[in-house]
Each structure stands twice: as C-alpha cells, then as structure tokens.
Amino acid sequence: MPEDQSNEEVRGGSPDSAVDRVADFYGAYIDAVDDGTDDLGQELRAHYLTEDLRQRLAAWEEANHADGVLRAQDVPTHWEVRYHDSGAGHLFTTVTLTWGTGPDAGHTRLAVQSDLSTKLISDIEDG
C-alpha cells in the first residue's frame, strides 16, 4: 500500500481552533525545513509564534546548535498534535515527533503552549 494514503484520509481544521493552528504550524514548518526553504520557515515563525518565543528560540538555538521548534538538528518523518489541557488563558498541546521509520523509529514529545486570545504559540518545551 502506498505511503501517501491521502485519498483515504480526511483532514480538516478551523482558524478558530488553537489546536488546529499548532498542527497547521508544525505541518507547514516541517515541510519548509525538509524542503530547505529557509525564508518560509522564518515567515511561518513570524506568523504563528509570539515575538517573545521567537527571541527565546534564537537564544536556545545559539546554545544548542539545533532547531528550537523541533528541538533537533534533523527533520522528523512524522508529527502528531494532541490537545493536553487549558487554563489561565492558555491552551496546551503535546506534539509528538517521529524520527525514522519502522520499529527503530524514535519519538520526541514537546509541550506547546498557545495563548487563547491570539492563538499564537507562546512556548515550546521538551515534553
């Protein structure tokens, strides 16, 4: 069976959903990084992330020599976003990144915080 089964999958979303916006960001960002489209990755960060988070990511990236959004130097082979919790004006999602394929594939979990008022991503931490 082909890897891309998009003809059998139905995907949807809403601009009003902070969870959908996190999923949209990670999908587009991973595509941009995988394609080597540097400007697009920065434009996506500017559109989806708060200014404060962009500054903190730059500092993290300088210290860790890796992509702060992905917390890695490589590009994942799969991503998944799930609602985790909400409160105090924030929504929390868990982003699971898959590295490699098959039984040896590794996984990284990230805790992503969005501001409900703006729907912008305001924090990304190791989950």
UniProtKB/TrEMBL annotation:
Gene3D superfamilies: 3.10.450.50. This is Polyketide cyclase.
